[in-house]
What we know:
Blueprint: H1 6-12, E1 18-22, H2 29-43, E2 48-53, E3 71-72, H3 77-85, E4 89-93, H4 103-109, E5 115-120, E6 131-134, H5 141-151, H6 160-173, H7 184-195, H8 200-208, H9 213-224, E7 227-229, E8 234-239, H10 241-246, H11 257-262, E9 269-276, E10 281-288, H12 294-301, E11 305-306, E12 310-315, H13 319-329, H14 334-337
Parallel strand pairs: 1-2, 1-4, 2-3, 4-5, 5-6, 8-9
Antiparallel strand pairs: 7-8, 9-10, 10-12, 11-12
Helix pairs in contact: 2-5, 2-6, 5-6, 6-7, 6-8
Amino acid sequence: xxxxxxxxxxxxxxxxxxxxxxxxxxxxxxxxxxxxxxxxxxxxxxxxxxxxxxxxxxxxxxxxxxxxxxxxxxxxxxxxxxxxxxxxxxxxxxxxxxxxxxxxxxxxxxxxxxxxxxxxxxxxxxxxxxxxxxxxxxxxxxxxxxxxxxxxxxxxxxxxxxxxxxxxxxxxxxxxxxxxxxxxxxxxxxxxxxxxxxxxxxxxxxxxxxxxxxxxxxxxxxxxxxxxxxxxxxxxxxxxxxxxxxxxxxxxxxxxxxxxxxxxxxxxxxxxxxxxxxxxxxxxxxxxxxxxxxxxxxxxxxxxxxxxxxxxxxxxxxxxxxxxxxxxxxxxxxxxxxx
Length: 339
Ligand code: 5GP
Ligand code: MN
């Protein structure tokens, strides 16, 4: 674990370095909150740091302090590659296998000789980092970055900017402090962040109360498409590319939709299948309540992974084939789903 290595990391960070901070592809609130918080922290020590996102992220995260400094590898490959090749240290946050940064970026990260530091709470980490702070019991990578700064003895350096970034990831990854990984410690950290200047109500508003009309209409369509399999305590939704187009889909618009399926009484397993013409895949998002591991389910059937109660994956088949596959494998899990 990282605690014993903290003195080494402290020494490493005692002189300004070239540092690249990477979140996973399709970054969410925790990915952007944690990377930008770390960016602002490293800047206090005059490091030449940059957050390099594999691709773009939703508009509801674009108010985050430091958003204008983020490099997007997908559209700035040349610049991104040079920065990675020139980096002394690469932090990988909120993911734990290079392929989660997307194939193009993974190809540049893999041969890099920079010192890798992982901070992450997903299951089954790959073994690429010299310094690994991996803890699957953690609510969020943002809570871990808070711990990391605290372990470095710098909690007094957490200002309103860093606090706001960290608040975002803890809030979004815990479903606003309600998922089981939310502990008393999580609330203590949140309390400290508010004391340090995070404006909790404003942040909540920025993330959750900035819907477009078309997004709510798209949610309506997803709800209409909801199917329930009561004997397997499963509910699932679909959105085709045509439906996304009809409601002027923008990145992030479907974030959280799957939770509505999980909110049904007696349902413990929920899925949403979203067609992507551009990637030629069906993106799968899975959620569960209790013991049923959607991480295992996704690894076994949908080429993905994540956490016990929240995971993602993909299917290379078309929508009807993907749904048939899903429906036909479910009975294998009948016992697990009815525990
Ligand atoms: P979402 O369904 O919101 O895309 O993702 C749920 C959780 O699973 C997040 O923690 C996300 O990082 C993780 N996840 C999403 N897609 C994948 C995937 O393809 N592979 C792995 N290993 N994790 C994923
Ligand atoms: Mn996370």
